[in-house]
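Entry 14. Structure prediction run on the chain below.
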Amino acid sequence: MIKCSECGYENMDGLDYCDGCGAKLESPVLHGPAGSTAAPQSSPSAGPGPAHANEIPAVEGPSSAVGAPVPAGPESSLPPGPSDEHLASEAEAAPDKAPTGEMSADATAPASVADAVAAPFKVRLSIIRGGRRGQEFELESGNNLVGRWDPETGAFPEVDLDADDPEAKVSRKHALIRIDAAKITIEDIGSLNGTYVNRQPRLQPGSPLDLKDGDEIIIGKTFLKLSINPIS
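Output returned:
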């Protein structure tokens, strides 16, 4: 029996609180006789102290379990290393292959374009009236701008009539002559004074007209003649 120190009520062994007043009961091990064996036998099963004492060696189990994943961590991190190196080697190898394909495609593209636009003849414009009579301009395959040179507006014509147009009747970007293979066309690109071929009605801007050898082209007040000479 355990006697309550507050109210004197005698409680059954193994209780922590008094049934009479609810006060905390003192352990019989601390205040009871040293030779009492009943209290030590009951306290290991009910008291928290011995229970924790028995669990202390069990902590080694978790510690070994915690130690087990530690080596597993580096081992699990090892595979990404080789895979990253493998991916890096593939990424380095990919650019080496890509330029090879691109270079081969680019190498053939200019040749095919050149074959498509190359003209089997030489084309010239010569001034027959106004400006420097007899002045010639050799045209190139592709686009040939006719106008007056003006860096402020970005006009850099292949046929520069600035020296032949003292009255500024020729627009900076007046007309466009295009040579594509065996076809030659002229197009007015919004000039102020218009473009005329063989003294026919004024060309409508954005409407190309086919040209042939001997055609007369009027740009402003400058008269030009188109000459087509086959390449021997």
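The first strand starts at residue 2 and ends at 3.
Filed with the rest of this week's runs.
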